[in-house]
Amino acid sequence: MSPNYSADHFRPVLAEILVTRTNGQIAELIDTYDQVFDGLEHDIKAKTSGPFQNLLLSLLRHSRDETELVDEQLAKEDAMKLIKEGEGQKSINESVFNEVIATRNLVQLRLTFDFYHEVADQDIETGIKQEFGGDDEAGFLALIKCVRNSSEYFADLLQNSINGPVVTHELELIRLVVSRSEIDLADIKHAYLEMHHISLEEAIEANTNGAYGEALLALVKGNQ
């Protein structure tokens, strides 16, 4: 049995989860998922394809450096390896990109992106757009945004959920608020206010009602 959600929803949510969770949490997720459904790797292969599938499978190995140590020389070396020369432009070496994203800590990744910008004379988002298209491009760009600033990334997801179709918006709001409530919801609330000029509490209160809205507000207000 596989969960009943679309591939369009499956891809970005899974990338977000695999990038922002610890190795231990990913291992636990895989174990739990495999007990209930056909298997996470099976469903990734069934619902995705191409370069983005390759990246998701790399992330599934849960082998990320979990320190916040930064190696400037390694960042420079990774940035150089990421550059793919061709047809008068620089893009992204897919296999190196997968390895770097799957194994480096988030602070190290941000430094690597900075060095890529320096040596390629373009940001990594531009390199991705030159190398990939369609769902692959969209997935990679969302992942890069999450790595660069996870608080702003989740603030955007919350805004999209609040303004989205009622059925999907309720499920996604619950998922986002509950999953981040004990991690970084206070930071996300601050980013939301800065980006949208309204507090997350006010936005939820204006767009939800009943016990569902009250439960969300209680969680959000509990994270100051």
Automatic annotation (TrEMBL):
Keywords: Annexin, Calcium, Calcium/phospholipid-binding, Repeat
Database matches in SUPFAM superfamilies: Annexin
SMART domains: ANX
Keyword Calcium found: yes
Presence of keyword Repeat: yes
Gene3D superfamilies, per database record: Annexin
One Pfam family matching this protein: Annexin
Molecular function terms from GO: calcium-dependent phospholipid binding
Family: Belongs to the annexin family.
Protein name, as recorded: Annexin
